[in-house]
Structures are given as C-alpha cells and as structure tokens.
Amino acid sequence: MSQSTPPPSGPPLDNNPYAGQAPAPGQGDPQGAPQPGFPVAPVAPAAPVRDNLALGLAAAFAAALVAAGVYGAIIGLTKHEIGWAAVGVGFLVGLAAGRVGGRNQILPVASVILSVASIYLGQLVGEAMIGAKDLGVGFNEVFFDHFDVVQQAWKAEADPLTFVFFAIAAYVAFSSTRKAGV
User: Fold this and answer.
1) Of 21, 48, 115, 129, which has the maximum CB count within 10 A?
2) What pTM value is reported for the model?
C-alpha cells in the first residue's frame, strides 16, 4: 500500500476517510512557514533598481565634479599632467554612470562627454592653482575673478599630450560605463 498513514477507523464523513483526522504537522501552516526539523531558506533580497537614466546622469555628473577637483589638485601640486589620473577620471565617471544608471545606451556617450569636461575643468583648476601659487594670491581670486586669464594660460600650455589625455579619459569612461552597467 502506498499510503503513509492508515485510514482512520470509524465511519467516514462525507465519503472521505480522512475528514475526521487532524491535519499533519505543517499541513495547516501557510506556505513558506518554517517546518519543524527543516532549515528555513533565506529570502532573496530585492533586485537593485537599474536602467534609471536620470539617476545615472546625476551620479556621473557628481563623479565628474569630484574627479575634476582631484585631477586639478594633482596638476596644481605636481605641475604636470599625469596620464594615470586621466584614466582614473574616466573610470570614476564611467563607473558611477554604469553602476547607478544600468545599461541605458545614452550613459556611455554621456560619460564620455562628462569625463572630457572633467579633464578640461581639472586642467583649468590646475592652471589656476599654479598661477595662484606663483602670484601669491588665493585660488578663488585667480579662478573666479580672472577665468579668462586661466583659459589663455591653458591654451598657451596645451600640447598634443593634453588632447591624448582627453582621448584616454573618453575611452576609459565609455568602456567602464558599458562594463559596469551589468
């Protein structure tokens, strides 16, 4: 016989021999309730929200501003443009856009634009820091009151390597956005 419990002895109710029995342990419990003697599997956490274009753009913009400040400080302190710092700027902007925004196809292009703008702003901050140190005045005065002079100094010192840094940051931002937006 294939039944695990014998049918009850006594008159069946409504032609059901099991109607008078108490439910087996765990039979009356709602689904998902722990069974005695069995471990409970943890509930999977909710999936993170992805493909949010606005949030991805906001994160990329914030990362671009932070990276521009750090890149400018590196240039201002060392008086040199450093290629690895340009890679870091592109990576940071691309990572922020991809992780927060997901796989939206606009984000890699937007991160390229934001990383190039971040490199440019960082180079201007570096020029302003160098100029402020040479003139013995504050950074804010040079950067905000004499921004045209800072841009002229950038144009005078721009060489082909400057534009290579733009290209490096753009490439790294594009590829890291696509890889991070899993």
Assistant:
1) 115
2) 0.71
